[in-house]
Design brief:
172 residues, mainly alpha, elongated
Length: 172
């Protein structure tokens, strides 16, 4: 509800409301862009906020700000990753033996490296679903695909991530 009010205030021309919106959402956008591009990219983050500033007056459903914002961020990231998406999808991976539950804590560096090694589509869905805590339907809306596709990408991404962690020496 707070975001909705901020959006309406922005649409009414309050500059401070836009600054509050940026303060509230900038870390999430920076995190999303950084993880999708496997490193920080201030230019892409700035492109996102510029597009938000230009498009905010035309946003008809202020309550849907978060999916709209991540859709803009996704578009900016995809523009940067266009050549990655042009490659054919890698082959399907069979399940790696081992328990799904982690028996130990994975250090951030290992996890970050494993995430960076994933294909962009799988990395994106893991980031949106697990790190940004967005529901499946919102992830589907952001990615522009059906919910079933998000579910299959999540399944594939978990398998790829598990395989990459095992390859890096982490045993679950």
């Amino acid at each position: 509800m707070a975001d909705e009010l901020l959006v309406v205030r922005c649409q009414l021309g309050e500059r401070e409301a836009f600054a509050e919106l940026i303060r509230a959402w900038h870390p999430a956008i920076e995190r999303y862009v950084g993880r999708m591009l496997t490193g920080p990219d201030d230019d892409v983050v700035q492109e996102v906020w510029l597009a938000v500033f230009k498009g905010l007056p035309r946003l008809r459903q202020p309550g849907r700000f978060a999916p709209w914002l991540f859709t803009i961020a996704r578009r900016a990231v995809m523009n940067r990753l266009r050549d990655v998406y042009a490659r054919p999808e890698p082959e399907v991976v069979d399940d790696v033996p081992g328990a799904d539950e982690a028996e130990a804590v994975v250090d951030r560096e290992t996890l970050g490296g494993a995430l960076a090694a994933l294909p962009a589509r799988e990395r994106e869905v893991l980031l949106l679903f697990y790190l940004e805590d967005l529901p499946l339907d919102v992830c589907a809306q952001i990615c522009g695909v059906p919910v079933g596709t998000i579910k299959s990408r999540l399944n594939r991404a978990r398998k790829l991530l598990r395989r990459e962690l095992v390859r890096k020496g982490y045993e679950a």
